[in-house]
């Protein structure tokens, strides 16, 4: 469930081609090359599969699956815990179609149509019902997209955002019982920023009970010390 949230935030479900001859499939998560992120992706690889490597420029740590057979096995997780962001829903649907329609011609004709149903998905989720696995999913999504900010004036905050999916940020707001409005600072980006201590405490409690595993865990530890004073 955590992995699905992390994929929704920082992952990518890809179908590509090799010299217009063969289809290539890939699941990938790319994060800043920090020891905490590396250790987290190693844990994910041990439980789910895939391999972990450092990018050539040494800036990123990457979890990746390239084997079609391994991908077919791993994506069964999505049958139980579906992705929540509209973009990943579209990517997964296209991957599944290409796994069954293995024709390179089909891929070339349809690759630019991958996100054609994204707006329909977004509209269908205007009355979004939080799924049963949401709290564990949310920790993975916070690991990807959350930000714990400490300020000298002690006006500490937590923020989280996502392109396109206002319904998701609204659901996170409701889950934490925040009163802040969901902002749309630019384009199709929606964000929630929380300053109120009682809400920050609920966020800290959530991230303690459903633990973060990477860089954000280190941020949470520092954040908690300041907020709990």
TrEMBL record:
It comes from the Eukaryota. Residues 3-97, 138-223 form the Homing endonuclease LAGLIDADG domain. Pfam families: LAGLIDADG_1. GO terms for molecular function: endonuclease activity. Keywords: Endonuclease, Hydrolase, Mitochondrion, Nuclease. One of its GO terms (cellular component) is mitochondrion. This is LAGLIDADG homing endonuclease. It comes from Heterodermia speciosa. The gene is intronic LAGLIDADG.
């Amino acid at each position: 469930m955590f992995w699905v949230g992390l994929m929704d935030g920082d992952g990518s479900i890809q179908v590509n081609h090799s010299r217009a001859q063969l289809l290539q499939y890939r699941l990938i998560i790319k994060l800043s090359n920090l020891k905490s992120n590396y250790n987290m992706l190693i844990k994910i690889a041990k439980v789910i599969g895939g391999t972990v490597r450092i990018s050539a420029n040494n800036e990123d740590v990457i979890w990746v699956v390239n084997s079609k057979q391994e991908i077919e096995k791993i994506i069964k997780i999505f049958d139980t815990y579906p992705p929540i962001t509209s973009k990943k829903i579209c990517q997964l649907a296209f991957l599944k179609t290409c796994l069954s329609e293995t024709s390179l011609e089909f891929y070339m004709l349809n690759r630019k149509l991958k996100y054609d149903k994204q707006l329909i998905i977004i509209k269908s989720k205007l009355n979004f019902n939080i799924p049963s696995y949401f709290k564990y999913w949310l920790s993975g999504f916070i690991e990807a997209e959350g930000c714990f900010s400490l300020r000298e004036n002690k006006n500490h905050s937590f923020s989280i955002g996502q392109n396109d999916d206002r319904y998701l940020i609204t659901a996170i707001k409701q889950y934490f019982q925040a009163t802040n409005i969901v902002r749309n600072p630019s384009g199709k980006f929606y964000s929630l920023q929380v300053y109120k201590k009682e809400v920050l405490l609920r966020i800290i409690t959530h991230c303690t009970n459903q633990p973060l595993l990477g860089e954000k865990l280190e941020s949470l530890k520092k954040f908690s010390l300041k907020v709990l004073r």
